[in-house]
Structure formats: structure tokens, C-alpha cells
Amino acid sequence: MDAILLQILNGLDKGGAYALIALGLTLVFGTLGVVNFAHGALFMLGAFCAVSVNQFIGLEQVRLDPDNLTPWGTPVEIREPYIVSWLGDTGHLLLDYSVPVSILAAIPVMILIGFIMERGLIQFFYKRPHAEQILVTFGLAIVLQEIIKTWFGANPLPQSPPDAMRTAADIGVLVGFDPGQIVYPYWRLIYFLFSALVIGGVFAFLQLTTFGMVVRAGMADRETVGLLGIDIEKRFTLVFGLAAVVAGLAGVMYTPILPPDYHMGMDFLVLSFVVVVVGGMGSLPGAVAAGFLLGILQSFASMTEVKSILPGIDQIIIYLVAVVILLVRPRGLMGRKGVMEG
Amino acid sequence: MVDFLTPSRRGVLKGGAAVGAGLAMPTIFSSQAWSAEYLNKPTGDTVTFGFNVPQTGAYADEGADELRAYQLAVKHLNGEGDGGMLNTMKPLVLSGNGVLGKKVSFVTGDTQTKSDAARASAKRMIEKDGALMITGGSSSGVAIAVQSLCQEAGVIFMAGLTHSNDTTGKDKRRNGFRHFFNAYMSGAALAPVLKSNYGADRKAYHLTADYTWGWTQEESIKNSTEALGWETVNAVRTPLGAGDFSQYITPVLNSGADVLILNHYGKDMVNSLTQAVQFGLRDKQVNGKDFAIVVPLYSRLMAQGAGENVKGIFGSTNWHWSLQDEGSKAFVKSFGAEYGFPPSQAAHTCYVQALLYADACERAGTFMPCGVVDALEDHEFDGMGNGPTLYRGADHQCFKKVLVVKGNENPSSQFDLLEVVQEVPAEQVTYDPAIFGGELGECNNGA
Amino acid sequence: MTTNTRETPQGDMVRFGLFTVVILAMPIWLMPFGAAYPDLMQKFAIYGLFAIGFNILFGLTGYLSFGHAAFLGVGSYTAVWSFKLLGMNPIPALLLAVVMSGAFAWLIGFISLRRTGIYFSILTLAFAQMSYNLAYSVLTPITNGETGLRVLNSDPRVLDHMMGAGEVDGPLVTNLFGMEMSGLPGFYFCAVWLLIGMYISFRIFRSPFGLMLRAIKTNQTRLNYTGISTRPYAQTAFVISGMYAGLAGALLCVTDPLAGAERMQWTASGEVVLMTILGGAGTLLGPMLGAGIIKYSENIFSAFNEQALHEIFAFLPDGIEAAVVSVAGLFVGEGWHLTLGLLFMLIVIFLPGGVIEGGQRISAAVTRLRGGGSGGSSTQPQPAE
């Protein structure tokens, strides 16, 4: 029982990440009709926003200590973050909370990146075949990740959650389990709540604003919306920016769970496409549902009890589910007819 | 025509003018038609080494560090710089004027940490650039694949970072040599330290990367900890590059285990350790004991990736820059002066391998692979950072001190992440070469 | 897109003849490029074959498969198992590999072709990823996992023993009735298969079957309405291209008897897509050209290091040289992926028809400059299909 509960919890935070990435991807699919293979790179860029902010806040003053020499004969460097020498304890606090603080920086940066990508490249590919969209965005993804690698190196760069959230919460006690039976890291709980919040926000935005209404109309029937005299182009740019922000925020908040490296976008790319297709191309609720579904299934498939019956099932469960769902429900869980076929 | 027998890159380019010369290109396996004594015999005033390291992919930083070490080794061999370990190596016949009077030059290739790509780039260096020796790499799969290629081609392979028992066990080859330690040695070195720190009554839970290296390490660690009296509660295989390990970590919580052993390397190790700590495993109490995490194979670069999470966690390494023997000090000094930071263990093993190869050529008086093999087999040397070392002839494995390390609780700098707990003497990690099987076979000159 | 020269049988024979000469003479004309060493030429031939086969599916029918690396892998593993069990003769290995990969492709095609568009792509991707993940871990007894499947001296190799050639002291190299299949002979062996594959591809492109495949790409719905079931045609194309991939995989093992799981990774599938599009999807020669360009860049760019760059730019004054080297260093050696990514983007943005289209544009421009505008129809590139 406790094992199952724990795996559901695991599925929730994993699913949260999948859902956030898939949400942006499907938004771009649905409105712009673009298959964006650089979407994983946006997730990665978001994570590196957190890294940059952390490095910026933690910018160190380097003093040389001539009395102490390194083994290779140069003076030992004494490093202290400027922010600590300026602000004292507030500086420590800022450093401690650098990941949440990065959200503030990531939003404008990701919007900007989204705008540049859409205006500079994607807009020329609306009418091109999907294969070409895939290729050009794939090329872009490689270029982006290589730039990050040149700048930050190939090694993962650990980002700590704030000290208060560094360990695990004993949430089992709250619902009547023995202490220590169901513990779960604070940060993962926060991640789940955060993803729920962002997903809710996006849905509210699309449901309650005029802008959202037009976007939804555009997803249903782009041509008609264009005929109504609405400048759909400008909205496309905004939608792309929104998708970039969602992916970027998913990346920022994921850094304490997974130390970011330049390749993390590619690692999530295939997976997020599978999530989108399982959910149904162009369906936002489908993407979210599929994200959580696959997250939870992946957790269960990893249980020793399951693996002993079906060895290696945890390696392929995601793909297996995708195959089965596509064969049983041709357009994914909630997809509509005619989207991205042919 | 002689030019075409041993083409350097330049030679091949020049030869482009000669129509039909292409048909006379030497080929690596069927070169018996030509009467050279051995493949790629250097005819000019240089000898070419091939440095095959991961330049792209997850181990790119480690590969970059290996390359730095090789470049430093080439400098020292050619008599530039401060000489590094050439000042401490014993016995020594190298004199800093190249090898056998020829200047050392090198070519590089990208293994991409894929056996296919690594073999392709090694082949290029052998066929096109005329490399006499291939060295480097950051994974056992690649090392084993390239080692057998070099055996077939008839050049020497000096393995870089490879930790699997198989490299000098069931997949050993006469033309291949490994200086780095292996999983068996990790287990043998770690076990006594674990016993003295955690006691003899422990229940261990293994998470193991689901591929060959992971399995050999799991087996070695299991054997040596069970010999202490530890019980293995469970050993779970995790997909390579899983990213999020939470679904494998949660079952540990209530399994009754009080030690978690992470048979992961690279990104997997960084991720699984970070996440295990977040699940509160380091602060947990089970069976009335403090829960412990062990990472049998440590590397400083990876410890950097895991950040603060490595504090207090035991593991083993081949070498660490804080060692105080003359060889290590000389190497750290010239590496640090050149690049501004201390070398990693990958850099150390690669540097040493390059020097050992050059020294063996000089002693053998020839670059002929079989001569070099003879010179390296059962060669004893000292002053290279791990104390007196034996290159055992029976399996081409180096036997030397192994370091048991612990994540530093109070690092004084960003490089000071690991603290050497114990230098385990070579005798304690020596084993009978027969236990892993395999055949060295005959040495191959490629001609 | 079709090539613009005369589509007559004679024209095809001329082109095929030229192609044959160019391929067989590779060891000579590749010399100035520093690419005339056996391993790279073998790769040209093998990946050319892979891309030509992929083009039969993608170029003609428009079905974008992201799983073809799986067939390459199946071909490789089958070939090595054939070496292990039967012997080092490449012929049975190739036959078995083609059969196995064909069967595997039939199965995957049968399921995946129930869907079209990106759904099809994701299905093939899913199958390929499952194959890769399993080959790396659970199927290690069959695939030897991370290290890759190799031939060992202790393997049965029944045919070899029957011929009295069982005990080999030296390396185990594939040999075709006594001729060792490595180095240049290995290249020519691959080249022969490439030519055969190319010839079949020529014939398919010009056959009614090929026409039907193009019709699928143009408008599948309309075909369905006219009462033609397109599935069997697409399925056949899928199996044929799977067999090409299997053959290519087996040839990889003929030249180097090792089969590694990473051959099946999705990025490897992506690579063949890139090769095809880079050269020109749907053209006869494009995929071969694309494969050549990518394999050349991979081998040559990744090999440059700082030392080599300094040699190249040694003629520049010191200060400028250092600057040029540090900029160039970003794009070669460990940065060659960056070059690759930029190359794709540039090609797709400016030359969506691939290099072939670029060549046609240039030749059209040249013709126009010469004032020979009369034969417009034969020089203008025809619209893409």
C-alpha cells in the first residue's frame, strides 16, 4: 500500500514535468501547425536561466592570498560572493533562493527567446511540410545545445533547492501512516503544485480572455479566423512566446531535481512528443492527462514486483503505451480528426 | 611508393597527384602483401599517437581533461615544459628528446562514447593518420571495442578511463593495456573501510546501471560486502540515462535496507545521488543505524556535478590530485601551471599511459607492437602517483595502490571535493588473473 | 522532385554508368579531400545504401519514419550472429540480415502504417526506441549490450570448420572465399552492393509501382476514394527500405565485425532522415550525396584540433592567426556538432530540395547566362511533388 502511494507521488511530479513540456508543444502544434523539435531546447534554456541567475547572484569576488600557494605555485584564491559582502544575510538568503528567484528572470528571457525564434525562423515555416519543420527545428536544437555546451561545459551543474526544502517531508503521518513510511522531498511536492498552477493558469488564460478565445478558435479553424479579419500572425508570435515561457519555467523548477546539462532538452524531446501524441495532437487537456498518465505508469513499471514478471518493462513502458493507445484510439486520448494527419 | 606504405595525413594529401596511388593504399588488415615489419612504421622524424577521447556527449568534459593531459604528455616527451613526471618516473630511459629520437606528434578523434563511433575514429587514425598507438576513452564498452580493433589492426591500445573487470578480464587482448583500476579492486579496497565505518551487520540495496559495466561492479561490490557479513536486500537495474530515479529510490525507503549502493557513473550517478539525498536517505535512521550511501566509483568531475550531495559519501578512485608523493606533486604542478586547475583522475591515467608507452618503446628500442608488449609486460615502475606499480603480464592490468575517498565535509576550494581516507596497498587488491577468464592471444604487428 | 534531365531508359543508363564510375573511382578522386582511406569510403557506400533505401519510403511515399535505425541494428546483429554460427563468409550473413530485417520491417510496418502523418512517425520512433532500450539491457545475452556483439575464436562457425578454416590465430576478419573484407577490398565489396541497390532504386523510381508510391505522397485520400487500397503499396515500400537498412547494417559488420546497440538509437534514425533531405528527398542521387556529406563532415571536422588549425592558418600574421583559430575552433573538433546543426538549418531554409536542387539551380542559372533560354522546359527545375 505505501509502495503504491509512493509510486503515485512519483508519477505526479514526473507527470507534472511531462505535462508542462507537452502543453507548450501542443499549443504550438495546435495554433501554428508547427512541429517544433526545438521545444526540448526551450526546456533546457529555461534550466540554464536558473544556472545563469545562480552564477550571477553568486558572482564571486576573488582575492589572492599570497601566503598560501596552490600545488602548482599560484596564490590560493579566496572567493566570496559579492552579494554576501554587500548585503550580508539578505545576500545569503538570495543565494539560497536562487532557483525560485530565477523564475522572475526566466519569464522575460523566455518570452524574448520565443519571439526571436518565431519571428526569426518559425514564421517562415508555417506553410512548409512537417518534415522540413522537424529538420530545421532539430538543427536549431542542436545549435542551441552546442552553444550552451561551449559556454557552460558538458558536465551537469547542480542547483540546490532552498535549504528549508532540501530534504523530505513525512507526509504519511498526516494521513495516518507510521512515521517514516511515506516521505517525499519537499521540492518535488512544490514542483507538482507549481506545475498544477501553471497548467491552471494557461487554461484560465485561454478560457477567460478574448485573446485566448481567438487562439482557441484558431486551433479549431485557422482559415476562418483569418477570414474574420483578425491578425492571426501577431497572436501566433504571442502563443509561441507563451509556449516558450511554459517550457522554460518547467526547466527552471526542474533544476534541483535534475542537475541541468546541455543535453537535457534532447533527453526530454522524444518523451514529450510521445506524450503529445498519446494525448492527442492539438488537444491541451489531452497533453496534460497523458503527461500524468505516462508519469504514473512509468513509476509503476519500475517496481521490482512488476519488473520480476516483465523484465525490462520499465525501459519501454512509455513507448508501449504509445503504440497501444495509437492503435486503439487512432488520434490519441483526446485528439480531433484531421489534425496533423497526412 | 614507400611514401604510400605509411601515409601521414600530409603524405596522403601529397599523394593525391599520383593517379592510381589510391589502389596502393595500405589497408589495416590485409597488409601482409607489403613487407614492412609492422603497421605504420614511422619513416620520418615524427611518431604519431592517436588520442581517442569523448569530445561530444555526456563525457565531453572528462574527454577534454584527458586531451589536456595528453597534450601535456607530448610536450614533456618532446622536452618542452618542466618535464612533469619524467622527473620522478623510475626506472626511466626517456630523455625528453621524443621517443627513439623521433618527435611525438598526435592526432585526435571523437569517441562520442559509442563503440561504433569510437572504432570508426580509431580506424581513421590508424588508416589515414598512421597512428602507432591509440589511447583514451571514458567508458568500458568503448575501451573493449577499441581494444579489440587495435588487436586486429596491429597497433597498441593504452586504455583510458575504463573500470569494468572485462577490459583486462574476459575481453583482454595482447595489444591492449590498462593502467586504471577496476570494479574488483574497488570492492576489495572499499570493503574494509566500509566495515570499520558502518560495521559488519548491514543490509545493502543496490541500484545498478543496466549494462555490462554496472553488472560487473554490482557483482564485485556484492561479493566483497557479503564477505564482510553484509546482506544484500535487493539489487535493482535502472535504465541508462533514466534522468529521474525517484521511482527506483522510493522502494528503498521501506525495504529495511540501511545502505544504498549506487552502481552508477557519470550523469546517472549525479542524478541518482542528488535525488537519493533529496529523499532524505542521508539523514535517515534504519534498524537503529544511520542510513549510508556508497558510490563505489567516484570521479572528481562527477562529484562537482553532484555538488553538496557528495559530502560524507564513500567511494574509490584511481588517483586524486591531493596525493603528496613526488610523482603526483610533479604532475599536479605542471598540469596546474599549464591550465590553472588540478587534473582529474582521467587526466592522470591518460598522462601516465602515454608516458608508459613511450618509455616502453624506448626500452624496447623499437615501435614494433610485439616489442612494446614485451617491454610492458611485467614491467615494474614507480614515481607515477600510485606508488610501486606492476604491469602484470598475465592480463595487462596495473597493480598499484587504490584510493578510498570520501566527499569532503568542508571543501576549501571548488576542486577540493574529495578527501582521501585511505591508500589501500596493492597487495590487498591483487587477484588471481584466472578468475575472470579470457585469453590474451598473440600479439599482432599488423604486418 | 524529379531530376530534370531526360527520363528515358537511355538517360538512366548513362546516369547509372556515370554513377558507377564515380563510385568505383572514389579512392582516386577523394585523395585531395583527405578522405580516400578505406574506413571512410566504406562508410560512404554503406550509409549511401541506407539513405537510398530510406528514400524509397520517404522520398516517394512521404511517410517519414523515425525508426529505420532499428532495421540497421537488426541487420547488424543478424550478420554478426551469422558470422558466429556459420562462419566468416559475408554472403550468408547478408542474405540472413536482409531476410530478418525485412521480416522485422514487415511487422513494424504492418502496425505503424495503420496511421499516417506524425502519428506514423511517432509509432516508428516508439518501436525503434524499444528495440534500442532492450538491446542495451535485457537482451544483452543476444546483443552483448554496451560492448557490442563480436565474433570470438570460441564461436562454432560451422561452415568455417567444415572448410577446415576454423582455428584462426590472428584476428577474425570476414572473408569472401579467401579474400579479406576489410580495407580496399571491403570498400569494393560494399560498393558493389551500393551499385546493386542503386540500380534497383532506379528501376523502382521508373516503374508503375514507383508511380503509385508517388501518388500516395501526392494525395492518398483521393487514391482511396478511387477505390485503390494504398496500404499494400506503402507496406511494400516500407519493407523494401527496411531491407536496404538491414543490408547496410550487415555491411557495417562485414567491414568491422561488431554490432553496437547505439546503432539503433533514435538519433541514428534522425541521421538518415537528415542525409536524405540534405541531398534531396525523392531524387535518385540526393541521398547518396547527403550521406557522403554528413559522413565526411563527421570524420574530418571532428578530427581537427587546435594543433591542426594552427598548421592550417600558419600563413596568417600571429595576432590574426590566434583569433581565427579560436573562432574556427568553435566549429571543429568538439564543436563539430555545431557545424552540423548550422548546416542542416541553412540547407533546410535555403535549399529545401537539398543539395541536388542547389546544383540544378546553379546549372539553370548558368544556362540562362549563356543565353540558351530556348530549352526552358528541360533546364527549369520541376516543382516538388
UniProtKB/TrEMBL annotation, chain A:
It is a multi-pass membrane protein. One of its GO terms (biological process) is amino acid transport. Pfam families: BPD_transp_2. One of its GO terms (cellular component) is plasma membrane. InterPro entries: ABC_transp_permease, BCAA_transport_permease. One of its GO terms (molecular function) is transmembrane transporter activity. It is found in: Cell membrane. It comes from the Bacteria. Its main location: membrane. The chain crosses the membrane at residues 15-35, 42-59, 101-122, 134-152, 189-215, 236-257, 269-297, 309-328. Keywords: Amino-acid transport, Cell membrane, Membrane, Transmembrane, Transmembrane helix, Transport. Belongs to the binding-protein-dependent transport system permease family. LivHM subfamily. PANTHER family: ABC TRANSPORTER ATP-BINDING PROTEIN (PTHR11795:SF442), BRANCHED-CHAIN AMINO ACID TRANSPORT SYSTEM PERMEASE PROTEIN LIVH (PTHR11795). This is Branched-chain amino acid ABC transporter permease.
From TrEMBL, chain B:
Residues 46-408 form the Leucine-binding protein domain. It comes from the Bacteria. Keywords: Amino-acid transport, Signal, Transport. The keyword Signal applies. It holds the Pfam family Peripla_BP_6. GO terms for biological process: amino acid transport. PANTHER family: LEUCINE-SPECIFIC-BINDING PROTEIN, PERIPLASMIC BINDING PROTEIN OF ABC TRANSPORTER FOR NATURAL AMINO ACIDS. Belongs to the leucine-binding protein family. This is ABC transporter substrate-binding protein. It comes from Roseospira navarrensis.
Automatic annotation (TrEMBL), chain C:
GO terms for molecular function: branched-chain amino acid transmembrane transporter activity. PANTHER family: ABC TRANSPORTER ATP-BINDING PROTEIN, HIGH-AFFINITY BRANCHED-CHAIN AMINO ACID TRANSPORT SYSTEM PERMEASE. The chain crosses the membrane at residues 16-37, 44-71, 91-111, 118-139, 186-205, 232-252, 272-291, 312-332, 338-356. Keywords: Cell membrane, Membrane, Transmembrane, Transmembrane helix. It comes from the Bacteria. This is Branched-chain amino acid ABC transporter permease. It is found in: Cell membrane. It holds the Pfam family BPD_transp_2. InterPro entries: ABC_transp_permease, LivM-like. It comes from Roseospira navarrensis. It is a multi-pass membrane protein.
